[in-house]
Amino acid sequence: MKPYLAAVLAVWCWGIGPAWAQDTSPAAAPPTELLAKDLREEVVRIQVTVKDMYGREATKPVPITIYRPAGEGPFPLVVMNHGRSPADKRALQTRSRPEPVARYLVAKGFVVMAPTRIGYWETYGDFDPENSACKTIEPMSIAASQQVLATVEFAKTLPYVDASRWLVAGQSVGGLTTVSTVGRAPAGLLGGINFSGGTGGNPDLSPMRPCNPQAIARYWEDIAKTAKAPMLWMYWENDRYWGPDIPKDWHQAWVRGGGQAQLVTFAPSGENGHSGVGEDMDHWLPVVDRFLRDLGFDRPAIVTAPPPSGFADVSDLNRVPVSSAGKAAYAKFLEMASPKAFAITTRGGFGFARGDYAAGRAMGNCQRNNGNTCVLYAVNDDVVWKP
After folding, report:
1. What confidence tens digit (pLDDT) does each residue in 240-281 have?
2. What is the distance between the alpha carbons of residues 1 and 173, in angstroms, rounded to a whole number?
3. Domain with 89 in it: what CATH number?
4. 7, 53, 366, 375: which sits with the fewest CB atoms below 10 Å from its CB?
């Protein structure tokens, strides 16, 4: 699964709020890391206390990546949760940084907070609260959701966040974290978005055959009894962690327990549909947009391509209003296969992308690199820009 969108899970503790404390200053980004200034990206750390499946307790710092819209707000909140790589790859998981998804949500009007849970990145080591040993998922679920609730409590201290209106979302174990959080029915939670949620899978050693999927079904049916917020569940047919059928069993268990969830299954995406959240945005964005619209968040946020403008032939390098570096990049863009898109600024800046959600990614690359408003110049084989 993608490190930037790996997911989270928590410890179940009825009636007990999250223990947390804020550090006094933002965490400095590594010197080689360029933050997305147009999204006002920053990293802070809060202290959170969780338990593992053996009852051992630890308090550790949880880094939170924050993205937010322009303006002072207050804005509603989305807590976005990452997944969990197999054991031999987990040490390489870096800070949770779901920028492509965050760009859409920020354009929608949300502050996005992405915690990097305990046991990953800086806190990777001998304490792993998300180890289930393929026996029970309750302790890991409580520990992961505990960190979500701690993030929300921290958000309440920020003047630009309206933490009385928030959503939880996540991919893989982050999706499992999302379901677990919805099951706790916390105050202000409006909905949950589950991308490929689950645990116990290994696409290399046991493709499409996770260990003990029945434990998830039993637990989710149980906690669905207390769930109040509606959910959107999305899975891909070629998910090499769960396969096409097991998520349907999990969904049936959730609904049987009394939970509200719409299940959407997408056609195969790439070699492993488990990564669909980052590699199949063209298909899931409209589905999520409808879900958010039904919750009252109807601001347009999906980047779409304008019709051809006739300003120039797409291959005419001299007409592109960019710097010399931009013209060199545009020459490379012309060699790319479709789908592709090229965006520009009024000051000669640029950004481009190809593949899934090319228009949106090109706009994001342009704005991230240049810090000001961008527009699409070319999409596929057409110039769409008007002077």
Report:
1. 999 999 999 999 999 999 999 999 999 999 999 999 999 999
2. 10
3. 3.40.50.1820
4. 375
> What angle do the packed helices 246-256 and 213-223 form, to 10 degrees?
20
> Which range of residues forms the domain containing residue 352?
317-383
Taking each helix axis from N to C end, the angle separating 173-183 and 213-223, rounded to the nearest 10 degrees, works out to: 30
Do residues 289 and 329 both lie within one domain?
no
Same domain for 40 and 133? yes
How many domains does the chain fold into? 2
256 and 337 inside one domain: no
pLDDT digits (tens, 9 = 90+) for 136-167: 999 999 999 999 999 999 999 999 999 999 99
Based on the number of CB atoms within 10 Å of its own CB, is 263 exposed (0-12), middle (13-18) or buried (19 or more)? Answer: middle
In three-state secondary structure terms, 152 is: helix
Plot region of 234 (φ>0 → left; ψ -120 to 50 → alpha; else → beta): beta
User: Could you tell me if residue 301 is inside a domain?
Assistant: no
Which secondary-structure segment (H or E) carries 234?
strand 231-236
